[in-house]
Amino acid sequence: MAHECPDCTFVANEGSIFTGWGSKKIGKNPELVGCFTMPNWVGHSNFYIFSCSLCGNNSVDYPHGYTSDGIRNGLLYLSCQNCNAIKPLYGKDVYRASGMPAPPSFWEVLKQTLAMRKKLKGSEV
Ligand SMILES: [Zn+2]
Ligand SMILES: [Zn+2]
């Protein structure tokens, strides 16, 4: 049975989402196209259009999890339909919309590192 809810739009495939967006000028950050479901899907997902930094083509995809690539570990990502390059997602709204915890920001990581260092110093006394 097809997924039906008032929040999403049913499309036949990713190509139909892309129609009308292919030639749109996309900035550095992925743009939300909308919420869609497809044949054989049990739920729905937000789709984003983005400009691939490797091949330069526009592509449409939904967030996948997770990257396992050194410092970019544990991020949601979009993948280019053209060359399969990965576009990590940093926008907190993307994570909120997917119900995922956002990755720590640069400052949060820094704060954690400092707190840990303080702790280490304390235990030396
Ligand atoms: Zn839905
Ligand atoms: Zn590409």
Radius of gyration equals 19 Å
Q: Return the average pLDDT rounded to an integer.
A: 85
What does the largest sheet look like?
Answer: 4 strands, mixed
Q: Ligands in the structure?
A: zinc ion
What does this structure look like?
- The chain has one domain (9-124).
- The chain has 3 helices and 6 strands.
- With 125 residues, it is an alpha+beta fold.
- The strands form 2 sheets. A 4-stranded mixed sheet has the order 1-2-3-4.
- The chain is elongated.
- Residues 3, 5, 7-8, 37, 44 line the site of one zinc ion.
- One zinc ion is lined by residues 3, 5, 7-8, 37, 44.
Concise structural overview:
With 125 residues, this protein is an alpha+beta fold. It has one domain. The protein has helices spanning 14-18, 92-98, 106-124; strands at residues 9-10, 31-37, 45-51, 58-61, 77-79, 86-88.
What tags apply to this protein structure?
four-stranded mixed β-sheet; two-stranded antiparallel sheet; 125 residues; alpha+beta; 6 strands; elongated; 21% strand; binds zinc ion; 25% helix
